[in-house]
Amino acid sequence: MKIRVACICAVVLAGIALAQPSQTPDAAAPAKTTLTIPVGTQIPLTLKQAISTKTAKDGDPVYAEVAFPFVLDERIVIPAGTYIQGKVEHVQRGGHVKGRAEVLIHFTSMIYPNGYTVMLGGSIENTPGAEKTSMKDSEGTIRQDSDAGKKAETAAGTATTGAVIGAVTNGLKGAGIGAGIGGAAGVAVGMLSRGADVRLEPGTSIEMEIQREVTVDASRISSRREAIVRND
């Protein structure tokens, strides 16, 4: 009787073991994790080459580098040293009479130190490292500050010089004539000269704003130091 009960238990246990699904290597592997960089995220960059509205053309490439790591959920998502690539979308030089110089730049890709590349949509939010410039609109257009005051100062200085020369040569009446001639000359100089160009030097600090969500593969992110160690 005991032998019969033992056989029945063995059969039951064998059936239970067969009923359990076997784990395959694929099922045991961890699921791929992704991280999403939200819209509006601002990333500090350092410009790698000079950009000037005097020489730049639509479509010219733009190169920058992440200056400080971006952290999300206590993990570095964009390490310092990550390369950012973009292009010049629009260039306008300063006008002779009106119209200030401006340049529009959009960023299109992000290259991690290990070569992992992610497409992105980014624009310039601010240019804290550029003097005499301001942001024109939400698209990221950089505009040169107005130099109308400088042109007025030039015209006034020319008028004063003309007045002095006129006074020396023809007295008070000559001073008035000289001032008028000098003022006209100053206005002519202002009309012939262009407004100042926007110029961003290498190393200029700029801020990139993410325009649409960017999804990255967390398993492929590495810092520059990690990439160097792996290469060694």
Which structural traits does this protein have?
232 residues; alpha+beta; Lipocalin; 2 domains; 6-stranded antiparallel barrel; two-stranded antiparallel sheet; 4 helices; 32% strand; elongated
Instruction: Give the integer mean of the pLDDT values.
Output: 75
Structural class: alpha+beta
Tally of discrete structural domains: 2
Largest beta sheet: what is the strand line-up? Answer: 2-4-7-8-9-13
Major sheet, described briefly? 6 strands, antiparallel, barrel
- What name goes with the CATH superfamily of the largest domain? Type IV secretion system, VirB10/TraB/TrbI
Helices, by number, come to: 4
Rg on CA atoms, Å? 33 Å
CATH topology of the largest domain: Lipocalin
CATH architecture of the largest domain: Beta Barrel
Low-confidence stretches: 5-9, 148-152, 161-166, 182-192
Compute the number of strand runs. 14
User: What sort of overall outline do the alpha carbons produce when their principal axes are compared?
Assistant: elongated
Please report the first level of CATH classification, the CATH class of the largest domain: Mainly Beta
Q: What is the first-to-last residue Cα distance?
A: 71 Å
How much β-strand is present in the residues? 25-35%
Percent in helix: 25-40%
The arrangement of helices and strands along the chain is HHEEEEEEEEEEEHEEEH
